[in-house]
Write a structure and sequence with these properties.
With 192 residues, this protein is an alpha+beta fold. The chain has 9 helices and 6 strands; from the N terminus they run αβββααβαααααββα.
Length: 192
């Protein structure tokens, strides 16, 4: 679900104060049943409906985190496209959080090690860099690696999907799972 959500809105969703989003798009970009991982956990979309700004209510504004109905209408009417009302809820914790703590063993460890070794020539150096420099800004790590920031961050996200890294307020660190996999990679490359 490609929806950018501001931190204040995410906080409102986490507290239960916000359960609506309003977006003006040229075409529907999310659908009921879709999910999105966010900083607060996984959001689940319950419904998506085309909405007329003239039919919005104070209750819509409150449930959407707006200060007033006028603020919601102004936001909706200043963009071209169709206004969509998205009903959603916090479905649970990001599953990658639990995955980070799971230490792989045996075949699982071997499979993860091999996967990292075959991801590309960027994967092992990126893990090594994050292990050696936790909390260092992504642009600084990217520069050290001789890469642009955006592709570097995309690579780190691929490692994060496997539960190997976690984002900090600034930079990254290896998860316990990531440390185990990096140790296995080091053993495999040392014996090769």
């Amino acid at each position: 679900m490609p929806v950018l959500i501001k931190k204040a809105v995410l906080d409102g969703i986490a507290s239960g104060d916000i359960d609506l989003l309003f977006r003006t798009w040229d075409a529907e970009r999310v659908h009921a049943g879709s999910t999105q991982r966010t900083a607060i956990g996984v959001l689940a979309v319950d419904a998506v409906e085309e909405t007329d700004p003239a039919e919005l209510t104070e209750e819509d504004a409150r449930r959407g985190g707006y200060a007033s109905l006028d603020a919601l209408r102004h936001d909706a009417e200043t963009r071209d496209g169709t206004l969509y009302r998205i009903t959603l809820h916090l479905a649970g914790e990001d599953p990658r959080i639990a995955l980070r703590a799971e230490i792989p063993r045996g075949r699982e460890l071997t499979a993860l090690r091999d996967r990292v070794l075959h991801m590309g020539d960027w994967a092992v150096p990126t893990l090594e860099m994050i292990a050696a420099q936790p909390g260092v800004r992504a642009p600084d790590l990217a520069a050290q690696a001789g890469r642009e920031k955006r592709p570097f961050k995309a690579s780190v996200r691929r490692l994060k999907e496997l539960g190997l890294t976690e984002s900090l307020a600034v930079g990254y660190r290896l998860s316990p799972r990531g440390k185990a996999v990096l140790s296995a990679v080091r053993r495999a490359t040392a014996s090769a």
